[in-house]
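Predict the 3D structure for this chain.
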Amino acid sequence: MYKMSSVTIGPVATNCYTIINEESKEAILIDVSGNPERLLAAVKEAGAKPVALLLTHAHFDHMDATDAVRAQYPDIEVIIGENDAPLLENPSLNLSYGFMGEPVSVKADRTVSDGEELELIGIRIKCIEVPGHTIGGMCYYMPDLTSLFDGDTLFHGSIGRSDFPTGDGDALIENIATKLFVLPSDTRVFPGHDSETTIGWEKSNNPYF
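Done. Predicted structure below.
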């Protein structure tokens, strides 16, 4: 019923995800960077329509293609954690000016808070705010799919950087331990860079814990 695909794209090889409800032909996107045609290839091939874009956090490499996607799907709802929304519109804080040499500013349609639950394309989604990489990084847990989309929070054998504006390394480690490691061990973790992992593997093997 649900088909998930990903492309690794953009200036710093960001993992961008698409989930399609094959019955309703609706889709959600999770982070968008780089070439919009590659991002939207799975949607178009399935004849689906993206109804929402979930942004894990406000750094440029996870959202710089937002307006390009909006140009093709004007009704798409762009969603981000409430505490990262100001960064999304600030080229200094979202790092676009420093890394790309040109400012990128995006405005969300909706913000979500820690613990809020959504239902999109028939999928239950729990929003888990995990500050540390950014002040309001949001992870999206989908229990029916046994999946967590966590941006640059937790990586395979590592964690996200905390030396950018609004980052906090101690908070990142504490929040991963108390908010993510309580999820079922078989939860698949789909990060913003590098390879897939699981909560159980990270609890047993990640050197930061």
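The CA atoms of residues 139 and 150 lie 4 Å apart.
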